[in-house]
Amino acid sequence: MKSEKSKNTQEKIFNAALKVFSEKGFSGATTSEISKEAGVAEGTIFRYYKTKKDILRGVMLEYVERFEEFANLESLKKIIRENKDKSIEEILKIILLDRYKVFEKNYNIMKVIHYEMQFHEDIKSMYIEKIREKEYQMSNYIFKQIKINKEEYKNIDYKLISRIFRGMMFGVFFQRRSEMEKDNIIPIEKEIDVMIDVFFNGIKKK
Amino acid sequence: MKSEKSKNTQEKIFNAALKVFSEKGFSGATTSEISKEAGVAEGTIFRYYKTKKDILRGVMLEYVERFEEFANLESLKKIIRENKDKSIEEILKIILLDRYKVFEKNYNIMKVIHYEMQFHEDIKSMYIEKIREKEYQMSNYIFKQIKINKEEYKNIDYKLISRIFRGMMFGVFFQRRSEMEKDNIIPIEKEIDVMIDVFFNGIKKK
Amino acid sequence: MKSEKSKNTQEKIFNAALKVFSEKGFSGATTSEISKEAGVAEGTIFRYYKTKKDILRGVMLEYVERFEEFANLESLKKIIRENKDKSIEEILKIILLDRYKVFEKNYNIMKVIHYEMQFHEDIKSMYIEKIREKEYQMSNYIFKQIKINKEEYKNIDYKLISRIFRGMMFGVFFQRRSEMEKDNIIPIEKEIDVMIDVFFNGIKKK
Amino acid sequence: MKSEKSKNTQEKIFNAALKVFSEKGFSGATTSEISKEAGVAEGTIFRYYKTKKDILRGVMLEYVERFEEFANLESLKKIIRENKDKSIEEILKIILLDRYKVFEKNYNIMKVIHYEMQFHEDIKSMYIEKIREKEYQMSNYIFKQIKINKEEYKNIDYKLISRIFRGMMFGVFFQRRSEMEKDNIIPIEKEIDVMIDVFFNGIKKK
DNA sequence: GATGAATGAGATTTCATTCAT
DNA sequence: GATGAATGAAATCTCATTCAT
């Protein structure tokens, strides 16, 4: 029976930890800094998380939860169904823009997990099972649809196409974030537009 | 006057540090583990590097050195000149395959620097100046060439095309490495082939 | 909001550090020994002092504080005022005896600071500003009074007389302390008596 | 059979050690810095001194040697004999000026020994036996002479007078050295003049 | 529940000393 | 004799975790 207040405290700790992890990395973060950032005593952290590592597990669980909310096959199918009148390109542009916004909003949590999973087997296997596999399912689903449409599109292994698309998408997204210090960056809408246009033009028969 | 012996010791420490950094991250690595891995006393490390952070700087310097060796505008131009009879697609396939091999060989050092630059301003600014800018120059150079060839290619801002291409390339490369536990992974040659074909088909006029 | 308990811990550490510093010198002292002497864990020291050097700074601050308490121009003037009926010699005997008692009580802290200021510029400049200058002001004040009394005293530069007096006083004080292993040492009262008598007889006109 | 070269090396090490000890203290000095200052390899030090502590013992021995050269009862008596026509004040002024010059020349070595003897019993007992006792003997000798001259001088315990005189002398000498940063310091000749005049006037009968 | 002082294991770093060349 | 690379014990310092209040 979590009280309002204690829920609030846990949240403060979680947010503080996420901030500090994303700025210093898990190992570089100290519970002392997290407690200061959260505005609680250092000991309080350990009433909510048994160990520092446990906070990281909490971050992972939150990541999975958020991911499942915004990225799942059902909602993808729903979007496609609801936009039957639009071309697949148009639909994907909508999806990617949405994904980029989610990406931006959840950048810190993603960054932390992507970095730390290298060093923590439990985080890694959970990531593969709960995130990566879902990600692959979704992109595979899209390009399987296209493969069916044999007349218009080239006959390329849909899994390979799916791989390249995913690589391109995340490559472009991460590249944008790594250029945050630049001021004349191109708008994301324009970049997605061109990315999708080139890619789909590329996989079409002439 | 570095003796053979001492050069050897420094190398052992460097390699050990690189290995441990890539397995545990900079903060998660301990000088004790590095010394064991290198087969030297812990104190010996500090004859070669003033501080642990200094080892990371050494890794960065080595990265820059290696990068400048294999990735510079001159050698890129040379490859293009030497392959004048081949199509731009063919040339890029050669370049990308080469880059992937370099990427694989230098994966650890790249991974370490890409991750750690988030947490160390000095590493980050050096990375931007010495690596990223050069990378951008090179890909921009390639797509500027194509732009000139107006008849065949669509009229898209070459910098934007260059961005998307780089994103795709690194996205695909990193995706491969993050899937190392998979056994049925597609050969890199095939993946590059399709990637280039789709991308160049995509930017051509119909 | 320092609790009683933590104030007590800091004091234990301070006293232990002072003892060990005075027995081994700053560089020769180890935080391990200080912690044992203080009866706390070694790590506890660093909750109260950021670095070992910081403990020395703490010692310096304490020295200044104690010095300002017992040695300031106002209280000197007060003593003189209150003893108007006594001769200057009698007054100075009272002052010197008091100073010697303070000297004995604060011998360790004085010794540590006097020695260490040679090696630490920050300690030295603080010493000069906060201690030596005040010391000079006070002795100068006394001998300026005497100078005014032209009839009785020789016409010697009061600053020079003041210098020699200070030198004699501290020389005698330190000589006593450096002979602690001797058992037949003359009582301080007698030594001060003779010192003052000789000195004032010496500066008087015949 | 010390060769010229090796004698030279030992001397270089000795001088370097003395310099570094006087700047950093014995514990604060490192053999690495001494070797750099001496212009020899670190290992070379240990061919001439078994341990770092041994260098300090060497410094002590050198101090004793120098002291015995310039300060011994025989030469004191000789000076007095040779200046029979001069007053005791005049003779002491000559002696003190000479002692101050020796003091200045040997300041570093004195400073090091005076500081370190607190922390090293062997150094301390050697100091007491070889230096302090001789020092006391000499000043006692002088004031015993004066005591004999009962008519002119007050009847004060010659040992006490001797103590105060020594305290004054070293107090004044050290005070001068501790004011090295000042530029308008009074000449030593003048200070000695006044010091002796005041002191001897002070111990005379009216 | 919350606090924050205290802990102590372990991390980084220093440095006198050794020894192969 | 001289060198300086290597050592490892010990020093300084950090920090996750505990626990009395």
UniProtKB/TrEMBL annotation, chains A, B, C, D:
Name of the protein this chain belongs to = Transcriptional regulator, TetR family
Ranges for domain HTH tetR-type come to: 7-67
Q: Annotated DNA-binding ranges?
A: 30-49
Q: Name one GO molecular function term.
A: DNA binding
UniProt keywords (A-Z) are: DNA-binding
The keyword Chaperone appears for this protein: no
- Source organism superkingdom: Bacteria
> Which species does the entry assign this protein to?
Tepidibacter thalassicus DSM 15285
Q: Which SUPFAM superfamilies match?
A: Homeodomain-like (SSF46689), Tetracyclin repressor-like, C-terminal domain (SSF48498)
Q: Which PANTHER family match?
A: ACREF/ENVCD OPERON REPRESSOR-RELATED, ACREF_ENVCD OPERON REPRESSOR-RELATED
Q: What is the lineage of its organism?
A: Bacteria, Bacillati, Bacillota, Clostridia, Peptostreptococcales
